[in-house]
């Protein structure tokens, strides 16, 4: 009787765990579909606001003395945008997956791994979202919809840097636009804190237009993304310099990496890393497949 209830309890627990895993996986899959859509929408909105509102209002066409500044701002914006989108494409174009391993590994009974990936040997992971074996996996990026590993880490870091710059630059232009168009003064540092609650209140009382509220919201979105990307990028650069990955850190398995930080950085950023800082190009000589895995074997 007692054994029967214990078996039942075990079965119930197992089905609960698998149901829980299923919902968590479903959430991750949903996020994997929503995040790229959000990224493209935010990019399109930033583009439209910049060219249809910011530049024409801050630098009016009739004022010829401002034409040079307008061109300069447009060039800077396009350069940042080009690098952000270029590195985004490169992150997807050069995936970190292993081309040799096409067999889906079966999870062992003692698998203590997370919902999205199984740890394999030699720093390889099987990503359940990508359904591929990833070499030296760092994490799964929901915005690019693929895994970040040693091969595409350099593009991912550059993507973070340029996304952060584009957002913070758009924030500055947005503030200039609100100052010119709606005479909002940002001299008081507290203005930024009170802007959103006040604007929301004014919108519902009909004092300001929907566009103005949307612009104010975008300022906070840009600030948020800009700061998050900058912080994330710093963390990634530090991990690369230490020769570690986010996966290892989360598992509490930081390896004892004795290579100097210069070697670790060069491993990821390549010999032509300076070119990679200003253009979304390949900076590492195409090496043979799975060298990292073989090195450790
Ligand atoms: Zn993945």
From TrEMBL:
Keyword Transmembrane recorded: yes
Stored Pfam families: DHHC
GO CC term, one of those recorded: membrane
InterPro entries according to UniProt: Palmitoyltrfase_DHHC, PFA4/ZDH16/20/ERF2-like
Catalytic activity: L-cysteinyl-[protein] + hexadecanoyl-CoA = S-hexadecanoyl-L-cysteinyl-[protein] + CoA
Membrane topology: Multi-pass membrane protein
Alphabetic keyword roster: Acyltransferase, Membrane, Transferase, Transmembrane, Transmembrane helix
Main location: membrane
Domain Palmitoyltransferase DHHC: 124-248
GO terms of molecular function: protein-cysteine S-palmitoyltransferase activity
Nucleotide-binding as UniProt keyword: no
Transmembrane segments: 37-59, 71-90, 155-178, 190-214, 220-242
EC number assigned by the record: 2.3.1.225
Coiled-coil parts of chain: none
Compartmental location: Membrane
Family the UniProt entry places it in: Belongs to the DHHC palmitoyltransferase family.
PANTHER family in the cross-refs: PALMITOYLTRANSFERASE ZDHHC16
Comment block on domains: The DHHC domain is required for palmitoyltransferase activity.
Protein name as catalogued: Palmitoyltransferase
Organism encoding this protein: Sander lucioperca (Pike-perch)
Lineage per the UniProt record: Eukaryota, Metazoa, Chordata, Craniata, Vertebrata
């Amino acid at each position: 009787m007692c054994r029967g209830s214990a078996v039942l309890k075990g079965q119930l627990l197992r089905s609960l765990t698998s149901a829980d895993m299923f919902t968590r996986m479903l959430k991750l899959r949903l996020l994997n579909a929503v995040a790229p859509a959000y990224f493209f929408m935010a990019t399109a909105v930033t583009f439209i606001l910049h060219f249809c509102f910011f530049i024409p209002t801050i630098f009016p066409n009739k004022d010829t003395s401002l034409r040079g500044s307008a061109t300069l701002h447009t060039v800077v914006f396009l350069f940042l945008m080009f690098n952000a989108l270029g590195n985004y494409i490169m992150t997807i174009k050069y995936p970190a997956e292993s081309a040799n391993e096409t067999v889906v590994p079966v999870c062992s009974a003692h698998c203590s791994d997370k919902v999205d990936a199984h740890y394999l040997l030699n720093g390889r992971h099987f990503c359940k979202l990508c359904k591929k074996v990833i070499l030296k996996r760092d994490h799964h990026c929901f915005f690019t919809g693929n895994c970040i590993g040693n091969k595409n880490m350099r593009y991912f870091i550059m993507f973070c840097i340029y996304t952060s710059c584009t957002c913070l630059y758009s924030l500055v232009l947005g503030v200039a636009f609100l100052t010119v168009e709606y005479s909002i003064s940002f001299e008081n540092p507290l203005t930024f804190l009170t802007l959103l609650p006040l604007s929301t209140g004014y919108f519902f009382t009909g004092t300001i237009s929907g566009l103005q509220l949307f612009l104010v919201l975008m300022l906070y979105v840009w600030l948020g993304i800009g700061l998050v990307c900058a912080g994330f990028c710093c963390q990634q650069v530090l991990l690369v310099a230490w020769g570690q990955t986010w996966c290892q850190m989360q598992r509490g398995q930081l390896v004892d990496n004795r290579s100097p930080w210069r070697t670790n950085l060069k491993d990821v950023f390549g010999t032509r890393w300076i070119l990679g800082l200003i253009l979304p190009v390949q900076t590492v000589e195409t090496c043979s497949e799975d060298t990292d895995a073989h090195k450790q074997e």
